[in-house]
Specification:
It is a single chain. It is built from 20 helices and 20 strands. By secondary structure, it is an alpha/beta fold. It has two domains: 233 residues, no CATH class; 247 residues, GxGYxYP glycoside hydrolase, C-terminal domain (TIM Barrel), CATH 3.20.20.490. Strands 11, 12, 13, 18, 19 and 20 form a six-stranded parallel sheet that branches. The protein has a four-stranded parallel sheet with strand order 8-7-9-10. Strands 14-15-17-16 form a four-stranded mixed sheet. The radius of gyration is 25 Å and the shape is globular.
Length: 564
């Protein structure tokens, strides 16, 4: 019997106790670290805002992106980035973005616009920007050479040319300075590592482009700021190890543009190195847009009302998620069939909030101002997750979080925002995660004078914390209570039933202005629901449900809810 008991203790009890001790030690270490760095002075906030390219001078060159095939498009974006190291000179036109260059030309009559129909004529015109009249050759497809070429292009100012275009490039006077086309059977990770190590001392060290080789967008800005360009599948251990080498070489609080194969793993790994993510793999003309941006603050039409809480009301804020996605905000968000434009066409009578990327204030000021101008007075914009870039706050190194939240506050001020939406993943046990990691991390946001409070997305459809409210330095951080996020069976009838059930859930919320039960942050998921469905749901709400903006919800909770 004694032997059986000892075996049980060794085999079952001791491993559990060891695991528990390790877990507690990890949480304790996080807690101590967060507390240690909370009162440390932040570094210069401006150092963490995105870098802007030099402004246009004299002429700008316009070309219709629809007239370019993929290889030509990549070539012209590399030319755009090379030129932008000296001055922004090249702009790719499309239906959604032409307005920005048109507005700029109207405001700057001394700048002349020259249109090109042929990409090679544009290359000829810009030959003076290209060093040594040289080009770096890559091979199109899923191999990494296009990103390797972009890294070389930024450092050397050699034009990126796909191997099938080399004869044409040579015919206009370009010389091949480097050929990166892959060797048969070669190791793609080793090839990327070799190029990175060769050039890392000449790269900026404060920005990374993580871009799929098949995606043709976004490399202009990376070339302009001389950033490393790469792409790693999150399930590739060798690739992840190489990328962590790049992460370790990169200054903390730098931005990762592009996207990934696994959002959760990518953001978690980036957060552990003190790096933040900006979803931007389909962004266009960032080098040019940054050059025509300014420090002049954008102004929202919506102004939060001072509301005296009514004991007969339940207060709810409807908030559209995913606005931190810079490519969506830049491209689809202002377009005719977007949720935003449909809202303006369907019903603007109720208050609604939208997450938006505060980085747009620094990188794409004209875009942010135009969106604000087209909004209605009932539209409120708040900072998308989890600040100036996407991080998991509870996993972010404490020694970097103060500077991150300070730069977030500065960007929010420039974007006329006061509430930030946070996205984080709870660890088990939850109570220990809340005490040792989440609450200490919230204190960094709460200490910034530009941040009035926040909303928290976590877990299943962002509502995993069940509407719980956390207070830090007197500022409320409200977790998602209900999520308008459909994951049921296909078919109009099933969707209609779900919309009705959701409205009933909202209507079941009580009126109680002194407790968290009297307030609900309702998340709206843009990829699984339509604006028509949201408007219909709102039409079903009872009279005791009072819709307010996110800013107003935070203010109401701060003024009325009793602290635990």
């Amino acid at each position: 019997m004694t032997r059986i008991l000892l075996d049980f203790i060794r085999g079952k009890v001791l491993p559990l106790l060891t695991a528990f001790a390790v877990t507690v030690a990890g949480f304790a270490g996080s807690y101590i670290s967060f507390k240690q760095y909370l009162l440390c002075p932040e570094e210069e906030m401006l150092d963490y805002l995105p870098e802007r390219c030099p402004a246009p001078e004299g002429e700008i060159y316009l070309i219709d992106s629809g007239a370019l095939n993929t290889n030509e498009y990549v070539m012209i974006t590399s030319l755009q980035g090379i030129a932008a190291q000296t001055r922004a000179a090249v702009f790719l036109l499309d239906a959604n973005r032409a307005r920005y260059v048109e507005d700029y030309l109207l405001e700057h009559p001394g700048i002349a616009a020259v249109r090109f129909d042929n990409p090679w004529e544009l290359v000829r015109k810009c030959m003076g920007f290209i060093a040594d009249a040289g080009c770096v050759v890559y091979e199109a497809g899923s191999n990494p050479t296009v990103n390797m070429a972009a890294t070389v292009c930024g450092a050397e100012r050699w034009l990126m040319v796909e191997k099938s275009l080399v004869p044409k490039a040579e015919s206009i006077g370009l010389s091949v300075m480097r050929d990166l086309t892959p060797d048969a059977g070669g190791d793609p990770v080793a090839a990327q590592r070799a190029v990175y190590r060769e050039y890392r001392d000449r790269l900026c060290g404060r920005f990374i482009l993580h871009q799929r080789p098949e995606v043709r967008y976004g490399r202009d800005y990376a070339v302009a700021v001389k950033a490393p360009c790469l792409f790693i599948d999150e399930n590739d251990p060798q690739g992840v190890a190489f990328r962590e080498e790049v992460f370790a070489d990169t200054r903390a609080n730098s931005m990762l543009f592009g996207w990934t194969t696994d959002e959760g793993a990518y953001v978690r790994r980036a957060s552990q190195y003190g790096l933040n993510v900006v979803a931007s793999d389909f962004c266009v003309n960032l080098s040019f847009m940054s050059a025509i941006s300014s420090d002049t603050a954008a102004t929202q039409k919506n102004r939060a009302e001072t509301i005296t809480a009514d004991p007969s009301k339940h207060y709810a804020a409807i908030v559209m998620s995913d606005g931190d996605n810079l490519q969506w905000f830049e491209g689809a968000f202002p377009s005719q069939n977007s949720h935003f434009q449909k809202r303006l066409a369907l019903d603007t009578s109720f208050k609604m909030s939208w997450t938006a990327p505060p980085a747009a204030a620094a990188l794409e000021t004209p875009l942010l101002k135009r969106v604000y101008q087209s909004a209605c007075a009932n539209d409120c914009f708040i900072a998308g997750v989890s600040g100036i870039g996407y991080i998991n706050p509870s996993q972010y190194p404490a020694r970097y979080l103060g500077s991150f939240t300070a730069s977030t506050g500065l960007a929010m001020r420039q974007a006329d925002m006061s509430v930030v939406a946070l996205l984080d993943n709870a660890s088990s046990p939850r109570w220990l995660w809340e005490a040792a990691q989440l609450k200490p991390a919230l204190a960094y946001y709460a200490k910034d004078k530009n941040i009035a409070g926040g909303l928290i997305q976590s877990g299943d459809r962002y509502a995993g914390l069940g509407g719980k409210i956390y207070f830090s330095r007197g500022k409320p951080f409200i977790s998602c209570g209900l999520s308008f996020w459909y994951n049921g069976p296909e078919g109009a009838a099933a969707k209609q039933e779900w919309v009705e059930r959701f409205a009933a859930q909202v209507n079941a919320q009580p009126a109680d202005i002194r407790s968290a039960r009297g307030y609900t942050y309702i998340n709206v998921h843009p990829w699984s629901t339509s604006m028509e469905e949201l408007v219909e749901m709102v039409s079903m709400l009872d009279s005791h449900i009072e819709l307010v903006t996110a800013e107003e919800l935070v203010a109401l909770v701060g003024e009325n809810v009793c602290r635990p």
